[in-house]
Amino acid sequence: MNGQRKLAIALVLLVALSLVLTACGGPKPAAGPKKMSAEDIAKKILELTSFKQWEALWPYLHPDAQAMFKGKDEYVASRKNAPEVTIEKFEVKEAISVAEWTDKGGTEKTYKDVAEVPISIEASVPVVGKQTMKQTMHLAKAKDGTWRFFTNKP
Predict the structure, then answer these.
(1) CATH number, residue 128
(2) How far apart, in Å, are the Cα atoms of 78 and each of 35, 58, 59, 109?
(3) Which of 111, 118, 147, 151 has its CA 20 to 30 A from that of 49?
């Protein structure tokens, strides 16, 4: 597999996972999303991802995205089998509200009143080395009013 292909895989993974490091050595287990700002939810998603707390990440996944998996166990297994990426630092910027967005890589559904959260991630990717990537995390509200993220099809 060439370096560009590995980088592309790493970028897809990072879009799906959107990792974050914290100074405390690890996040506290999450009970699930609360009514927080889109930026705070994005930070929590990235924090859980950076420490590979896949089970705790499941409740933050949009219900439509959850439906792409047979259940939490399949989702967790898919994350555990993903390429290894080590996040060195990140930045979450102010969310931008968009009237409509289509999740082309996952549910293939269109969502209204979506938050686009710009993120910048510096990560070490095996064979490729250190990479800085700027991406956008899309969040849509679930029926309970909490922001939830999307992932690619399994």
Answers:
(1) 3.10.450.50
(2) 27, 12, 16, 22
(3) 111
